[in-house]
Sequence to fold (105 residues):
Amino acid sequence: MPLDLHQQLGLLALMLITSKGAATVSGGTFIVFAATVTASGMLPLEGLTILFGINRFTSQAVCICNAMGNGVATLVISKSTGEFDASAARAEYQRVFGITPGKVI
Fold:
């Protein structure tokens, strides 16, 4: 479906606004995407069936990336505010995994 630059930027802005918070629920991104495509009227609805087939796999990747991003953000904020305790983190790592961090198995 050919779209000019103005339509592409408008669709990008609309997708960015409507996608906030959708990555927290597996499969939620597709619902938001389908609703946005329907509301925009720019893209054909027939393409949604093809995208739905691969959404299960991409949804899992989105959830994994979201969880990793949340973990990194938590670490960055705790270090920047001085709340991070490295010895407590090492002790918890050893308790959960049973090995010392940095030790090669």
About this structure: The chain has one domain: 5-97. Residues 5-97 form one domain. The radius of gyration is 20 Å. Helices lie at 5-18, 28-40, 47-80, 86-97.
